């Protein structure tokens, strides 16, 4: 059973503290430059709400304790791999994504920022970019790590199932999505797409450090 979270919305349709992600999501979807963050306790959320969102940009949450049994279950990441991640300022907001070598964080590619994107779109595009890059280099046994279950499911479906509204401002992003979907439809790949276990290994190496 997942632990309860508290969601602070500083900038949204109705700022406040919410105990449901779905309710929180309704406050920020479509809101330009939305500002929000989750906390593990009500006390942390109440303190954060009294302060500014900017005070929490790039601040990592307190580390959660992990048991030896969990560590054994997750094992260690495969270092000979690529890790991808995305960052988005707001939801929607300016979005960018990148891919790095897992073992040393050497950046392989970086795209954006794109106006009016979402984090899930960025994670999806990052995965497709990484897959295509490895295929072009004939390295189809190299794994790719992502910490986004949603983006990984979109890869399996070969479809970016976003509900984002597209207009003149983010037309370029829509073009990239269609191109990525077209590539997935026309190409097979063998690279394992693996879940990055943040709980055991810390932030994914491609993380932008803005949580």
What's the topology here?
Elements: E1 6-11, E2 16-18, H1 21-28, E3 35-39, H2 42-50, H3 68-74, E4 82-90, E5 93-101, E6 107-117, H4 119-136, E7 144-146, H5 149-157, H6 171-186, E8 193-195, H7 198-201
Parallel strand pairs: 4-7, 7-8
Antiparallel strand pairs: 1-2, 1-3, 4-5, 5-6
How would you describe this structure in keywords?
3-stranded antiparallel beta sheet, alpha/beta, 7 helices, 5-stranded mixed beta sheet, 211 residues
Describe this structure in a few short sentences.
The protein has helices at 21-28, 42-50, 68-74, 119-136, 149-157, 171-186, 198-201, and strands spanning 6-11, 16-18, 35-39, 82-90, 93-101, 107-117, 144-146, 193-195. The protein is an alpha/beta fold and 211 residues long.
Architecture overview:
The chain has 7 helices and 8 strands, in the order ββαβααβββαβααβα. The two termini are 24 Å apart. The chain has helices spanning 21-28, 42-50, 68-74, 119-136, 149-157, 171-186, 198-201, and strands spanning 6-11, 16-18, 35-39, 82-90, 93-101, 107-117, 144-146, 193-195. The mean pLDDT is 88. By secondary structure, the chain is α/β, with parallel strands linked by helices. The longest helix has 18 residues, at 119-136. A hairpin with a 2-residue loop joins β4 (82-90) and β5. Helices cover 34% and strands 23% of the residues. The radius of gyration is 18 Å and the shape is globular. The strands form 2 sheets. Strands 6-5-4-7-8 form a 5-stranded mixed beta sheet, covered by helices on one side.
